[in-house]
Design a protein that fits this description.
This protein is an alpha+beta fold. It is built from eleven helices and 19 strands. A hairpin with a 5-residue loop joins β13 and β14. The relative contact order is 0.16.
C-alpha cells in the first residue's frame, strides 16, 4: 500500500504537498477506513481551483513511466509550476508487510525523468542522474549481477531493472510494479477520462450486455432512486445498444441525465476494477444527491484492499457517521491537512464535523 506521497513543483503546487497515510489516530469507529495501519479511505475538500484534481494527477504521474497503462496526455498540459520551478519532484513510500520501498524521481517540463532513486528498507538500490549519466549502482549489481548497466536511452531505470530481472512475486519491486499497474484515476463525467489500470476501455459502451449485468445495473439505479427501466435492443445496423424503456425506447447515452450517465461510469469501473490497488475519483459526486453520495462512499468502504481518495464539495459527507476525522482532508494552496490536524480541538465521535467546517474551525 501507499504509505506516503510527496510532490512539489507540479502544476499549482509551488510548495511541497504531503499525504501521510500512516497518520492514523486512535478512533474506534469506522475502522473500515483504515487497512493494515494505513488510511485507506479519504475525502479531500478545498476551494475551487486549489488543486484537488491536480493532486490526483500528481499521484498518478508514476503510472506514465512505470507501466503501459492509459494516461490521457492533455490532463498533464502545463506540467510544471509556472512561478518557481523548472522541474517537478515526486516521492512515493510503499509499505508491503515488513518491507518499505522509497521511490523518488524528478521530471522536467516535457515529463522526462531527470533523476531517479529507490531504496528498499533503507538500503539504496540505485540512483541515476539522466543529465550527467552518472549514479550509484551497487544495489543493482547485488540484485542482478548480469544486468547491463547502460541507461543512456532508457525512459526509466527502475522499469528496466524490473523488466529484466527475474524476481519472485514476494519481492518488494515486483509488488511495487503490481501496485502501480493496478492504480486507477477516473471522473464520473461524460467523457470517461481515466488513468491507469487498463490500456483501453473499448468495452465501456457495451459493458452492460456483454457481461450480463443489465439486471444488476438496473437494481443499482433503483437503489439510487432512478426508476427508469432499461432494455437492450439490436438496432437496424446490427449493433446492440442500451435503451431507457419508459414507453418508447430511447438511447440511454443520448437522453439519460448527467447524473445517470455518471452512475453508469461509476458502475462500469466498480465492476471492472474490483482488484484495483489505489482509486482516485475526481469530483466523484458532481451530479449526485447527497444521499446517493453517502451510499457510494459506503460502497467504496467495502473495498477493503483498495486505497481510495475522493474529491468533493459536499459538506453533508463531513460526518463521523460516514467516516472519521483523520480521513477527511482539506487542501489549500500550501498544504494538505486532515481535520484532526487542522484544529487544536480534540475531535470526538459526537462532534458535528460539517458544522465545525462551515464555522471556520479548520482554518481553510
Amino acid at each position: 500500500m501507499l504509505k506516503r506521497f510527496e510532490v512539489e513543483g507540479f502544476k499549482n503546487f509551488e510548495k511541497k504537498i504531503i499525504i501521510d497515510f500512516s497518520d492514523v489516530h486512535d478512533y474506534k469507529f469506522n475502522t473500515e477506513c483504515v487497512t493494515n495501519g494505513l488510511l485507506s479511505k479519504i475525502i479531500v475538500y478545498g476551494r475551487n481551483s486549489v488543486g484537488k484534481t491536480n493532486l490526483g494527477l500528481a499521484i498518478f504521474d508514476v503510472v506514465s513511466h512505470l507501466t503501459d497503462r492509459n494516461v490521457t496526455p492533455e490532463l498533464y498540459d502545463y506540467y510544471l509550476n509556472a512561478d518557481t520551478w523548472d522541474s517537478a519532484k515526486f516521492r512515493y513510500v510503499f509499505e508491503f508487510e515488513n518491507d518499505i520501498v522509497d521511490y523518488k524521481y524528478i521530471k522536467d517540463k516535457k515529463r522526462n525523468l531527470v533523476y531517479e532513486e529507490i531504496s528498499i528498507n533503507n538500503v539504496l538500490l540505485f540512483n541515476y542522474n539522466y543529465g550527467t549519466k552518472k549514479g550509484e549502482y551497487t544495489g543493482i549489481k547485488a540484485l542482478n549481477p548480469s544486468l547491463i548497466l547502460d541507461f543512456e536511452n532508457l525512459d526509466s531505470v527502475l522499469r528496466y531493472i524490473i523488466n529484466n530481472t527475474k524476481l519472485e512475486d514476494a519481492h518488494p519491486l515486483k509488488k511495487v510494479m503490481k501496485y502501480v499497474s493496478s492504480m486507477l484515476w477516473f471522473r464520473n463525467l461524460d467523457e470517461n477520462r481515466y488513468i491507469g489500470y487498463k490500456t483501453n476501455t473499448k468495452d465501456y459502451l457495451d459493458f452492460i450486455f456483454e457481461n450480463d449485468t443489465l439486471d444488476e445495473f438496473q437494481d443499482f439505479l433503483y437503489n439510487a432512486g432512478i426508476n427508469d427501466k432499461l432494455s437492450v435492443k439490436v438496432d437496424i445496423d446490427g449493433v446492440k445498444r442500451l435503451y431507457l424503456n419508459n414507453g418508447v425506447p430511447m438511447p440511454f447515452l443520448k437522453i439519460a441525465s448527467s447524473g445517470t450517465k455518471a452512475l453508469y461510469t461509476f458502475f462500469y469501473w466498480y465492476k471492472t476494477a474490483k482488484d484495483v490497488s489505489f482509486m482516485f475519483i475526481d469530483e466523484f459526486d458532481a451530479y449526485y444527491h447527497y444521499e446517493l453520495s453517502e451510499s457510494i462512499v459506503k460502497l467504496l468502504e467495502k473495498m477493503t484492499n483498495t486505497q481510495v481518495i475522493l474529491t468533493s464539495h459536499n459538506t453533508n459527507l463531513l460526518s463521523n457517521r460516514i467516516m472519521r476525522p483523520d480521513c477527511y482532508f482539506i487542501l489549500t494552496k500550501d498544504k494538505l491537512t486532515s481535520l484532526v490536524n487542522a484544529t487544536d480541538r480534540e475531535l470526538r465521535e459526537g462532534h458535528n464535523l460539517e458544522k465545525l467546517y462551515m464555522s471556520g474551525e479548520f482554518n481553510e
